[in-house]
User: Fold this.
Amino acid sequence: MEENIATQYTPADYKNGSPVRWCPGCGDHAVLNSLHKAMAAVGVAPHMTAVISGIGCSSRLPYYMGTYGFHTIHGRSAAIATGFKLANPAMTVWQVSGDGDGLAIGGNHFIHAVRRNVDLNMLLLNNKIYGLTKGQYSPTSARGFVSKTSPYGTTEDPFIPAELVFGARGNFFARSIDVELQISQEVLAAAARHRGASVVEILQNCMIYNNGIHNFITDREHRADRTIHLVHGQKMLFGKEMNRGLVRDGFLVKAVTLGQDGYTIDDVLVHDAHTPSNFLHQQLAMMDGTDLPLAIGVIRDVDAPVYNEEVDAQVEQVRAAHGFDSLRAMILAGETWEVK
Assistant:
């Protein structure tokens, strides 16, 4: 990923003027707006940027970008984005999926792109429903969720995207909410600057088939008490008065109110997004807004070997050691035989 120092870009430089065709009130509008602004803040030229998507409402996003774009096939955007990045290492690649496209048919590609640490900015829009195909439950729908394909409630537990990322040994995970435009811009810009696979989950509302699914944490009355904005190097404080914080509770964390039970600001944890250990990062990412506030912001941001860079280095090493000038030369250098 290269930042353009000579040219200053604006969000308009990343738009292509196409009419945006999402339902009025859909959270995708806010995500698109935040992405345009984040791209301008990072400053990678539009012609050095590609946006690759799968299938679903979220996957229409490349149509509204003034960059290269590729609307691919169901569940395969991570695989195609991986190939694109390997073939075009200088390009900044954004891969966009919904919770259905990315975690159901695309789940295998998702975890392996994270495991390999391919230099992709992976944007997962989570509305906990299949919207484009008219309201079936998705891999992130809660147990008991009633939908067209589960009229009596689902009988299975959902994926938690953060848990998949950490299970695949991910090095960057961030989360935002569609109504938190400033935080969305912050985490998207951080994802673009991270070397390797960066996963940003944005909790997003579907007005038609799952309206209000995130209201528990997004409504104005309770949002400050049910979410915590994590910033590297800052105290983990939250609440309307910023008088609540996260402290250690044995091996776990708990929420306390400053001034009660002897707790002071000195007891509150400082967020370290860069520590290699993911022990605390996982705990923070798994908080859901009930007993502990939902964590938004950059939760983990750690350097690690990047897959496409490692592949390029290996190719150059083998080429230098054996003098190969083409793929054919490499193949013929091994054991060969002629079929007559």
In short: The chain has eleven helices and eleven strands. The CA atoms of residues 42 and 307 lie 22 Å apart. The longest helix spans residues 27-42.
